[in-house]
From TrEMBL:
FAD binds at residues 93, 157, 186-188, 356, 362-365. Disulfide bonds join 84-89. It comes from the Eukaryota. This is Dihydrolipoyl dehydrogenase. Binds 1 FAD per subunit. It comes from Durio zibethinus (Durian). It catalyses: N(6)-[(R)-dihydrolipoyl]-L-lysyl-[protein] + NAD(+) = N(6)-[(R)-lipoyl]-L-lysyl-[protein] + NADH + H(+). The active site is a redox-active disulfide bond. PROSITE patterns: PYRIDINE_REDOX_1. Residues 390-499 form the Pyridine nucleotide-disulphide oxidoreductase dimerisation domain.
Length: 509
């Protein structure tokens, strides 16, 4: 790197970092010189050290390096990408896609005039395709680290002081990594239930459910949340008889109630069974399968259910084991989540936390936004995450996607509102492809017509929602969406029609 360009970069960073002292300035120029040479020794002080290489951590590390900060990321797993890439978002979406293809071939192709003499599941090939997707993507992040000159340390990090992390490296040694700013991005782990031991064979977490060696005849899912419904769908499509046991009166309790009812009906049509308001009180694994004793959540008569495999998907908890938080005095809440202020700083100056390990939705895209905003603050810029406008998607078929408030939340706020709905049964593209189960529902403030929430159930709701995410972020009205020309024939026209139904009348119903 030319000296002039180094000087410009240094001046730029210092101009945006009001905390930089002359000593910091010296360290910065030292680190920038090393940065320009493309290496960094672990004993040198970093501007930013990130513990955890998941969507929160790796994105924070890349962004920090892009902002000219000398950055090291410590990850214990041996591969980057965290829960999401290794055992979460990516492998589950790979299996959801493969199992959907099988299900379509078996149940829908003939109706489109495509005849197959036989359709079979080849589970090892399906799993290999999933593993290939995962390894390509995790290696891709290593490439991005190299490209952006992020130092990658493979090992388990623990605090020895607010500016030093000791790492037990995967190679067997240990190292001290120093940083002016340390970001905790250690993510989450499966929440275990009392009396139920996960062996990842017969009683599995999502990780085991992503790697079963055969299709279970009977699968019981504990918890009707994101993981339960997605993984229940995968195995249900491949032939399992799926029963979902849920403690609450409803599936996905955070979803808009009207959409949720339609969603539950759609899943029941796919033969998924639900036992709501039900709790698990005992598990017996002494025989070949698993016997699960359940009773009504409010107490009452017990029933025994039998299954080949039980999936425990009753939520996730922040992961901070062995991190040494007590050593440096980082505060957590009762649920173990690290408490941070609006700049992601913990109660210990210089120590930050982002992603699943702090309060807020446990979603990969939220963790990424946290990561970018956190390092922007560190670099003296203005980071921003609006937690009210984080979209959520359940990747079943149909998918359910939402942004903003549910009708129940709007009612609770006492706001006067209007609702506009449009069914996919009246959408020409959905009818053309014979996949028309679903609805768009828009909630808008009555007086201003400002959109408060959008809920979509549709085959590709996870893609369709982003027009609504943009609208909600820009403070758009339903009329704003309705007056935008949408291409025909597309599923997106259903959003336009629902918007017309919100402030006026739709054309096609
Ligand atoms: C089955 C499943 C499916 C999911 N699907 C989706 C989805 O479709 N969309 C979505 O938005 N979200 C999804 N999620 C949630 C998503 O995976 C998380 O919200 C996201 O991974 C959180 O990112 P993170 O960076 O905060 O933590 P994580 O991804 O958990 O990463 C934390 C990393 O830190 C490492 N680590 C922990 N402690 C240490 C230490 N002391 N030293 C070094 N390294 C350490 C861990 O090994 C881990 O790799 C899914 C989750 C699961 C389980
Ligand atoms: N598509 C996605 O974005 C996606 C996919 C998978 C996971 N995730 C994330 O991972 C996290 C964990 O997923 P999850 O499905 O495990 O949690 P979740 O919070 O989505 O759902 C857990 C469900 O289990 C129920 N439950 C809790 N204790 C129970 C008990 N003892 N018996 C029966 N039911 C019980 C809850 O009422 C809830 O409905 C979620 O917060 C989600 O954000 C996201």
């Amino acid at each position: 790197m030319a000296l002039a360009s180094l000087a410009r970069r240094k001046a730029y960073i210092l101009s945006r970092n009001p905390l930089s002292s002359p000593v910091d300035a010296f360290k910065l120029s030292f680190s920038l010189r090393n940065f320009s040479r493309g290496f960094a020794s672990e004993s040198e002080e970093n501007d930013v050290v990130v513990i955890g290489g998941g969507p929160g951590g790796y994105v924070a590390a890349i962004k920090a390096a892009q902002l000219g900060l000398k950055t090291t990321c410590i990850e214990k797993r041996g591969t980057l990408g965290g829960t999401c890439l290794n055992v979460g978002c990516i492998p589950s979406k790979a299996l959801l896609h493969s199992s959907h293809m099988y299900h379509e071939a078996k149940h829908s192709f003939a109706g489109h005039g495509v005849k197959l003499s036989s359709v079979e599941v080849d589970l090892p090939t399906m799993m290999a395709q999933k593993d290939k997707a995962v390894s390509n993507l995790t290696r891709g992040i290593e490439g991005l680290f190299k490209k952006n000159k992020v130092t990658y340390v493979k090992g388990y990090g623990k605090f020895i002081s607010p500016s030093e992390v000791s790492v037990d490296t995967l190679e067997g040694g240990s190292a001290i990594v120093k940083g002016k700013n340390i970001i905790i991005a250690t993510g989450s782990d499966v929440k275990s239930l009392p009396g139920i031991t996960i062996d990842e064979k017969r009683i599995v977490s999502s990780t085991g459910a992503l790697a079963l060696l055969e299709v279970p005849k009977k699968l019981i899912v504990i918890g009707a949340g994101y993981i339960g419904l997605e993984m229940g769908s995968v195995w249900g499509r491949l032939g399992s008889e799926v029963t979902v046991v849920e403690f609450a009166p409803d599936i996905v309790p955070t979803m808009d109630a009207e959409v949720r009812k339609q969603f539950q009906r759609a899943l029941e049509k796919q033969k998924m069974k639900f036992m709501l308001k039900t709790k698990v009180v005992g598990v017996d694994t002494t025989g070949n399968g698993v016997k699960l004793t359940v009773e009504p959540a409010a107490g009452g008569e017990q029933t025994t259910l039998e299954a080949d495999v039980v999936l425990v998907s009753a939520g996730r908890v922040p992961f901070t084991a062995g991190l040494g938080l007590d050593k440096i005095g980082v505060e957590t809440d009762k649920a173990g989540r690290i408490l941070v202020n609006e700049r992601f700083v913990t109660n210990v100056p210089g120590v930050y936390a982002i992603g699943d390990v702090i309060p807020g939705p446990m979603l990969a895209h939220k963790a990424e936004e946290d990561g970018v905003a956190c390092v922007e603050f560190i670099a003296g810029k203005h980071g921003h995450v609006d937690y009210e406008k984080v979209p959520g998607v359940v990747y079943t078929h149909p998918e359910v996607a939402s942004v903003g408030k549910t009708e129940e939340q709007v009612k609770a706020l006492g706001v006067d509102y209007r609702v506009g709905k449009f069914p996919f049964l009246a959408n020409s593209r959905a009818k053309a492809i014979d996949d028309a189960e679903g609805i768009v529902k828009i909630l808008a403030e009555k007086e201003s017509d400002k959109i408060l929430g959008v809920h979509i159930m549709a085959p590709n709701a996870g893609e369709l929602i982003h027009e609504a995410v943009l609208a909600v972020n820009y403070g758009a009205s339903s009329e704003d969406i309705a007056r935008v020309c949408h291409a025909h024939p597309t599923m997106s026209e259903a959003l336009k029609e629902a918007a017309m139904a919100t402030y006026d009348k739709p054309i096609h119903v």
